[in-house]
TrEMBL record:
It comes from Paenacidovorax caeni. NADPH binds at residue 105. This is Homoserine dehydrogenase. CDD domains: ACT_HSDH-Hom. It holds the Pfam family ACT.
Length: 444
């Protein structure tokens, strides 16, 4: 049988990995897929560099639309990234009757509903395993492996840059700005790291996983997003002393009121496996009603780990592209006509309605009565306190210091209630700096 013909849009880090892994493992891939998978055409603005990667046996062009227009191409792999030209090209490929594989989480998080609807109408597949957590097959697990389960929640370390920064801050006791510069020097962080450090990249991925887990449309615009730029070395140190580690988590959870969808730093008990995921590695914990807790761990980025996911999608499409479209696995795991109904029944909750527990750090005057004032406000708000720690003034500000850190751990409470209590505490004349609030996730 003739090999299935693939057109590659972009042959940068991931694209070159796809080409190299396909070449190296072509016989095993053919045996798994039932026929060969062949990159027949590549589009890249740097034609000479692309030719140097693929050699003389592959047609290289500068215009991506030439790939889409080629009737011999069965699958288009989009590795350009971003929301702009990538969206136009994906929709044009679908309109031309091509299956699409993409690693573009931003595109799917923002425009996934439109793209999946277009693909369903045309009877083609859009596969996106590489869009979330690199080489970890979390999309496949959520969409197929856990299909018997009512998913209750999932929480993931799904951005390697921020996890590397937090690991370095904890190991070396350094502040965020210092570690960010080191991460950029080592190539873990981009020159403009905004999407990573502000939590946007993780939120793109969390929105996609939430849709698959709960059978709702992709709703990135409703996600709560908070990055790691305000974290201090002191909070990481205090968390460690309390038996926690701070991780940037993407969390989505089913509740009686609706779906939580949020990305923010979280204190996680150090005994949890996910708390011990270090460096640039990724991990996702999924809680299902039948299977219980499952953990998926591995490299979340990189040339060949991401290529592994892209090629897995190519194999899936090769196996299924002749199947009646109605008998394929739905893009978001649930049948498309059920998604809007679920959106009404399971709305994404505003952050003020989320219930979780908290770590609070207050820089206060080291004088009598301060603790009573602060805990009085917390108690009057109906917030249950788990623990209160007051550091020695000398430890915080050096010998003779008149300031100290007061640390409060709470039990579960509504975010809106906590916001009101923090606003009241902040107005106390004995509270000398903005209060640090970090959410706490037990993940049990």
């Amino acid at each position: 049988m003739k090999p299935i013909q693939v057109g590659l849009l972009g042959i940068g880090t991931v694209g070159s990995g796809v080409f190299n892994v396909l070449q190296r493992n072509q016989e095993e891939i053919r045996r798994r897929a039932g026929r060969g998978i062949e990159i027949a055409m590549v589009a890249d603005l740097d034609v000479e560099r692309a030719r140097a990667i693929v050699g003389s046996g592959v047609q290289v062009v500068q215009d991506a639309r030439a790939v889409i227009a080629n009737p011999e191409i069965d699958i288009v792999v989009e590795l350009i990234g971003g929301y702009g030209i990538a969206k136009a090209l994906v929709l044009e490929a679908i309109a031309a009757g091509k299956h699409v594989v993409t690693a573009n989480k931003a595109l799917l998080a923002v425009h996934g509903t439109e793209i999946f609807a277009a693909a369903s109408a045309k009877g083609v597949m859009v596969a996106f395993e590489a869009a979330v957590a690199g080489g970890i097959p979390i999309i496949k697990a959520l969409r197929e492996g856990l299909t018997a389960n009512r998913i209750q929640w999932l929480a993931g370390i799904i951005n390697g840059t921020t996890n590397f920064i937090l690991s370095e801050m904890r190991d070396k006791g350094l502040d965020f700005d210092v570690v960010l510069k080191e991460a950029q020097r080592l190539g873990y962080a981009e020159a403009d790291p905004t999407f990573d450090i502000e939590g946007v990249d993780a939120a793109h991925k969390a929105a996609i996983m939430s849709a698959i887990a709960f059978g709702i449309p992709v709703q990135f615009d409703k996600a709560y997003v908070e990055g790691i730029t305000q974290l201090a070395a002191a909070d990481i140190k205090y968390a460690e002393q309390l038996g926690y580690r701070i991780k940037l988590l993407g969390i989505t959870k089913r509740t009686d009121k609706g779906i939580e969808l949020r990305v923010h730093p979280s204190l996680v008990p150090s005994k949890r496996l996910i708390a011990n995921v270090e460096g640039a590695m990724n991990a996702v914990v999924v809680q299902g009603d039948a299977v219980g807790s499952t953990l998926y761990y591995g490299k979340g980025a990189g040339s060949e780990p991401t290529a592994s996911a892209v090629i897995a999608d190519l194999v899936d499409i090769t196996r299924l592209h002749t199947v009646d479209p109605l008998n394929r696995v739905p893009h978001l795991a649930f049948q498309p006509h059920t998604l809007d109904q679920a959106k009404d029944e399971l709305p994404v909750l505003p952050m003020s309605e989320v219930v979780t527990s908290y770590y609070l750090r207050l820089r206060v005057a080291d004088q009598a009565g301060v603790l009573a004032q602060v805990t009085g406000i917390v108690a009057n708000a109906g917030i249950s306190i788990d623990a209160v720690l007051q550091r020695e003034a000398d430890e915080v500000g050096g010998e003779g210091s008149t300031q100290t850190d007061l640390i409060i751990l709470t039990h579960d409470t509504r975010e809106g209630t906590m916001n009101d209590a923090i606003a009241q505490m902040q107005q106390l004349p004995t509270v000398l700096a903005p209060i640090t609030r970090i959410r706490k996730e037990e993940l049990n």
